[in-house]
């Protein structure tokens, strides 16, 4: 590796002259470095660079930076994923139970059940289990799996459609059930309560046998309309757990059984009361001396059914965004077949079809304009309100709307590969994922029910002890039932998933694709935004502005450089090649092309040894450089590319990458959000500083090697910062993956960027602001929801237990308890739906 006069930098693999100033000794061997950056990295962990010969680094072109290491590769390497639409869940408790069972099932890597989407997302080892086996597990638990059948199952739209139909049918059935329950409950309520409200009626309704009538009306309400509570509670009991069904079943059954005994054998209850005091109770000539509470049981069931109905209605609206996205899919495409044009269903379009798109029509699939041109409204996918001009060779996206012109396009992506389908898949995944905050809610919910049952029993015992004998059973039963019902944690399970569904859906409609609940939650804690320079702050399409030459003439210099750069994929290289083409310069034969990431290139052109790149690249080759010209260009915000021919400094080519119009405004708004903004670039310090000044970022980290960007993020994280990295997702994937939140600025055509947590369909910094604002709004919404869900329980339980009774004589009726609990779910879902009104940032 080492010759007499040159060394190889062990970090980047670059050739370094013996005169290079930076060196270090490790285990008796001395190494030379191209830059302080490499030296620093080497000193941090020498083994890392010595164990794996980094000579390979020199063959890499700068754009092919290594992909991020998968952190948990071994466990999930061969895992497959399936989605099961579940039927029969009626509360978040069910979701939790199914999830637990699935996770304990052999062959399952991870399973998550989302109550809002009613889906289970399961990662499993195909050698250990299969989707059919998993379906059976669910069925064995007493739930069902929707079989959409055939094609629909593999197609997101079809599956969603099937799910919607089932939900609709379910909804209608539940509504009928509720209405019948209501019809039976109303007379019970009137019989039981009219006497309290209008004393004159008391005698009318106190006819003998009244409690038998109430019994007859209540029984079907409880055991037919409210059957699901009992079957649910039973299923839970079989798994030795208790959920909200348990609470409802226990509450209503207590009220019912107490009343039943009072109806059939009141003397039992009387005897209990009389036995203690030795005297019969006050001789009220009532139909049932101890009182019956049939209405309590009936009203609880009816109100909870109503609550679930309202909740289902509101919950179906939370998936509105995804339905809207799917609805964008055009049905037909006008395809040229032979010399005829015919309308064919979208599913029959094949790659390479030529498609005609007329004004006012939707672009059917993704493709490329091959004839004509137009302006296209892409707002439905990118959030960009202004129509985008499309000309020959431009990419068009399926489901966008053609406004003015007519054009022909070549189908380049169809079916599942289209941008629209990718977006739909991403949103589905995001909506099925859990935010860390939900784990807390789930944990609380799992302890909640047993705690509540204990509290209810304690309440019963205390009231039974402290109340005079003639009313003690009544008091004890009433408070027992109230505590059970008001403490039901159903709203708790809805608080996070509904907000995440609405939040991610709203994002997708504005071109912000959030990978999941975790990304959403982290995004609201960010302290620092790191922006990549090229393509993020600047347009990413640089062009040559100046050519300074010292040895050969201008055209020769440009020709030599462009020939050398022909093999480069770097935007700077491309700019030089383009500029030579524009001047009509021919390309010369090249040998020994070598790209040195972060520094430049070396090559032999026409027998001459050419170096094109940074000042350091030249000095490290022992070439004397007069940098004054380069510095002046850099101070003007241009990137000076230095050129050496046969070991002599021969010229400087200045390349300018214009700053995007919105960049400065966006940086300002990021500051307004209280965020620190840092620019990260491989470009030289002077150029970087100049650009930084123009856009107003707080700090610049310049001259970072392509694979050093992840390290820079790590350093910031080590300072306790929560960092978002914003880049194009192609050559900064490791940094995106390293960041707490990786935000990829899409180009409109590539949305499934692996390393990114958030993908902005439209490459625009305003999307960064919107994503952060959206995440903050969503998390705030979740917190409100949790507050709503908890406040009912926390305030409700002591009141239901009768804590106010000694002071005010006030006791929370179980009926009010059931009303509050029904409304808590509704208020949570309604609050989540407010996120639909979130407005995105427009530059
Ligand atoms: N093919 C090339 N031709 C000429 N110069 C190059 C080439 N590749 C790299 N360089 C030099 O190396 C520097 C660093 O390159 P690198 O790719 O790390 O970052 P960049 O493209 O300038 O900026 P950013 O990090 O913001 O994307 C460039 O500014 C340029 O001076
Ligand atoms: Cu509940």
General description of the model:
It is a single chain. The protein has 843 residues and is an alpha+beta fold. Among the domains are: 6-49, no CATH class; 85-147, Alpha-Beta Plaits; 327-418, Calcium-transporting ATPase, cytoplasmic transduction domain A, CATH 2.70.150.10; 512-538 and 659-772, HAD superfamily/HAD-like (Rossmann fold); 543-656, 3-Layer(aba) Sandwich (Calcium-transporting ATPase, cytoplasmic domain N). The protein has 32 helices and 30 strands. It has a 7-stranded mixed beta sheet with strand order 18-30-29-28-19-26-27, sandwiched between helices. A hairpin with a 2-residue loop joins strand 3 (22-26) and strand 4. The longest helix has 42 residues, at 156-197. It is elongated and about 120 Å long. It starts with 5 loop residues before the first strand and ends in a 10-residue tail after the last helix. It is a multi-pass membrane protein. It is found in: Cell membrane. Residues 50-78 are annotated as: Disordered. It comes from Geomonas paludis. Residues 59-77 have a biased composition (Low complexity).
């Amino acid at each position: 590796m080492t010759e007499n006069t040159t060394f190889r930098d062990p970090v980047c693999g670059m050739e370094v002259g013996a005169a290079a100033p930076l060196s270090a000794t490790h285990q008796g061997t001395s190494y030379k470095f191209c830059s302080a950056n490499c030296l620093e990295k080497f000193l941090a962990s020498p083994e890392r660079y010595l164990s794996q010969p980094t000579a390979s680094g020199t063959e890499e072109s700068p754009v092919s930076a290594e992909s991020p290491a998968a952190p948990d590769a071994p466990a999930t390497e061969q895992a497959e994923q399936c989605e099961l639409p579940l039927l029969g869940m009626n509360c978040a408790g069910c979701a939790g139970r199914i999830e637990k069972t699935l996770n304990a099932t052999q062959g399952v890597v991870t399973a998550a059940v989302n109550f809002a989407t009613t889906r289970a997302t399961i990662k499993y080892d195909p050698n250990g289990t299969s989707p059919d086996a998993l379906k059976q597990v669910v069925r064995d638990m007493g739930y069902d799996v929707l079989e959409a059948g055939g094609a629909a199952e593999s197609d997101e739209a079809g599956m969603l459609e099937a799910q919607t139909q089932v939900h609709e049918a379910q909804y209608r059935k539940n509504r009928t059930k509720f209405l019948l329950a209501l019809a039976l409950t109303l007379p019970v309520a009137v019989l039981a309560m009219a006497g309290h409200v209008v004393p004159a009626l008391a005698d009318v309704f106190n006819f003998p046998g009244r409690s038998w009538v109430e019994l007859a009306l209540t029984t079907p309400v409880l055991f037919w309309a409210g059957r699901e509570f009992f079957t649910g509670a039973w299923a839970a009991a079989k798994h030795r757990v208790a959920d909200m069904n348990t609470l409802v079943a226990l509450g209503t059954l207590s009220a019912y059984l107490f009343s039943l005994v009072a109806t059939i054998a009141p003397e039992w209850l009387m005897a209990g009361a009389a036995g203690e005091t030795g005297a019969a109770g006050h001789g009220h000539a009532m139909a049932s001396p101890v009182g019956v509470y049939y209405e309590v049981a009936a009203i609880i069931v009816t109100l909870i059914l109503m609550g679930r109905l309202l909740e289902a209605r509101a919950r179906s609206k939370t998936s509105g965004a995804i339905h809207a996205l799917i609805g964008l899919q055009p049905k037909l495409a006008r395809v040229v077949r032979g010399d005829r044009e015919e309308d064919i269903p979208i599913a029959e379009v094949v790659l390479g079809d030529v498609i005609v798109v007329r004004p006012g029509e939707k672009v059917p699939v993704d493709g490329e304009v091959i004839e004509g041109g137009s302006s296209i409204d892409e707002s439905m996918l990118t959030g960009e309100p202004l129509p985008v001009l499309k000309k020959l060779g431009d990419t068009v996206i399926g489901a966008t709307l053609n406004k003015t012109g007519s054009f022909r396009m070549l189908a380049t992506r169809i079916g599942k590969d289209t941008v629209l389908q990718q977006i739909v898949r991403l949103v589905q995944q995001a909506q099925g994922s859990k935010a860390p905050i939900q784990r807390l809610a789930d944990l609380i919910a799992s302890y909640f029910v047993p705690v509540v049952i204990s509290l209810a029993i304690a309440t019963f015992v205390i009231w039974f002890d402290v109340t005079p004998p003639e009313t003690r059973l009544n008091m004890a039963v009433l408070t027992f039932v109230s505590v059970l019902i008001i403490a039901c944690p159903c709203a708790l399970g809805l608080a996070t998933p509904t907000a995440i569904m609405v939040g991610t859906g709203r994002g997708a409609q504005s071109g912000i694709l959030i990978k999941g609940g975790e990304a959403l939650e982290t995004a609201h804690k960010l302290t620092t935004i790191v922006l990549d320079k090229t393509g993020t702050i600047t347009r990413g399409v640089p062009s040559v502005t100046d050519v300074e030459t010292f040895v050969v003439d201008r055209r020769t210099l440009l020709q030599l450089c462009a020939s050398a750069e022909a093999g480069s994929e770097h935007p700077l290289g491309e700019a030089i090649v383009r500029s030579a083409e524009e001047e009509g310069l021919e390309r010369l034969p090249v040998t020994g092309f070598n790209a040195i990431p972060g520094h430049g290139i070396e090559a032999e052109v026409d027998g001459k040894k050419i170096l094109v790149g940074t000042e350091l690249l030249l000095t490290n080759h022992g070439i004397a450089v007069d940098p004054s010209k380069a510095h002046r260009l850099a101070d003007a915000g241009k990137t000076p590319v230095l050129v050496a021919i046969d070991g002599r400094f021969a010229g400087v080519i200045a390349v300018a990458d214009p700053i995007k119009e919105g960049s400065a405004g966006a940086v300002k708004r990021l500051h307004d959000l209280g965020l620190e903004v840092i620019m990260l670039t491989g470009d030289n310090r002077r150029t970087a500083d100049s650009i930084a000044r123009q856009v107003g970022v707080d700090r610049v980290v310049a001259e970072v090697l392509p694979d050093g960007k992840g390290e820079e993020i790590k350093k910031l994280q080590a300072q306790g910062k929560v960092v978002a990295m914003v880049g194009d997702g192609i050559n900064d994937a490791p940094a995106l993956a390293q960041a707490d939140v990786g935000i990829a600025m899409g180009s409109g055509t590539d949305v499934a960027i692996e390393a990114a947590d958030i993908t902005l369909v439209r490459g625009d910094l305003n999307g960064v602001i919107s994503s952060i604002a959206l995440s903050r709004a969503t998390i705030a919404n979740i917190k409100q929801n949790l507050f709503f869900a908890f406040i009912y329980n926390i305030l409700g339980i002591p009141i239901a237990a009768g804590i106010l009774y000694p002071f005010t004589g006030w006791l929370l009726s179980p009926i009010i308890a059931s009303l509050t609990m029904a409304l808590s779910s509704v208020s949570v879902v309604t609050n989540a739906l407010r996120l639909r009104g979130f407005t995105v940032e427009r530059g």
